[in-house]
Amino acid sequence: MDFHCHLDLYPDARQVYAQALTRNEFTWLVTTSPRAFAATSKVLPATSRLVISPGLHPEVADSKAGELDMLLGQVRESHVVGEVGLDGSPRYRAHFGLQQAIFGSMLYECQLVGGRVLSVHSRFAANEVLEAFANRPGFGTAVMHWFSGSPSEMARATDIGCWFSVGPAMLESPNGRRLAQMMPRDRVVPESDGPFATVGSKTVMPWDALSTATVLARLWALPEEDAREALISNGRQLSKLLRPVD
Ligand code: MN
């Protein structure tokens, strides 16, 4: 299972896609721009085991802002949205206002259409992301990807019903492990964040996401098998929300 991967951005995307479909029970392919979503949906189409979602990554807010209307149209047609969110790190701070305008419009659309499930980026902006959610009650359900906020921000996110997707690269850092230890164990799912995420010099693949169970088991003081079962059962729960009703 993998609840956040940029499958379209692997150098050999078609091959990775084919393997993910055989090896993974479920894969969530997030895109970084509305045009990329449109193009990727044709080449790497959704199946009963793979969802693909329209997004507009905050790191490209300035260059893709013109695609906002396209995103809103895609949000109306899709059950899932991502990657979306805010990034307050120094490199992207100059466009933070623009990021907030885009993210706010997208959440408003989600609210209007009765709620969506979102894969959300919140690096150095957890507080602002949570504020944006509070402004749009009924926007849906957020899956906080690679969460790196403070423990109190994590507690707030948990209180409003957020899920968390956790990957091998996140668990390499002491802060990531500390947060993962405190997460609500019935709302944690595995992610790869490949091909951006690496462990050592290896790119994390969609079928590597479940390996997080090994570290989570230690953090949660559980046998590895139980941590794995928890991730799988959470993943099955969440994947029901991600798929269109048949
Ligand atoms: Mn990502």
Q: Can you walk through the features of this model?
A:
By secondary structure, the chain is of the alpha/beta class. Helices cover 44% and strands 17% of the residues. It is built from ten helices and ten strands. The protein has helices at residues 13-23, 34-43, 61-64, 68-77, 96-112, 126-135, 151-159, 174-182, 212-220, 224-242; strands at residues 2-5, 27-30, 50-53, 80-85, 116-121, 140-145, 163-166, 188-190, 198-199, 202-203. Strands 4-5-6-7-8 form a five-stranded parallel sheet. Strand 9 and strand 10 form a beta hairpin. Helix 8 crosses helix 9. The longest helix is centred in the last third of the chain and has 19 residues, at 224-242. The protein starts with a strand and ends with a helix. The relative contact order is 0.14. The structure holds manganese (II) ion. Residues 4, 6, 83, 193, 196 line the site of manganese (II) ion.
What distance separates the N and C termini?
Answer: 21 Å
Q: What small molecules accompany the polymer chains?
A: manganese (II) ion
- Compute the CA-based radius of gyration: 17 Å
Count of DSSP strands: 10
Quaternary structure classification: single chain
Q: Quick gist of this model?
A:
The chain is of the alpha/beta class and about 250 residues long.
SSE inventory with pairings:
Elements lengths: L1 E4 L7 H11 L3 E4 L3 H10 L6 E4 L7 H4 L3 H10 L2 E6 L10 H17 L3 E6 L4 H10 L4 E6 L5 H9 L3 E4 L7 H9 L5 E3 L7 E2 L2 E2 L8 H9 L3 H19 L4
Parallel strand pairs: 1-2, 2-3, 4-5, 5-6, 6-7, 7-8
Antiparallel strand pairs: 9-10
Helix pairs in contact: 4-5, 8-9, 9-10
The protein binds manganese (II) ion.
The site of manganese (II) ion has 5 residues, from loops.
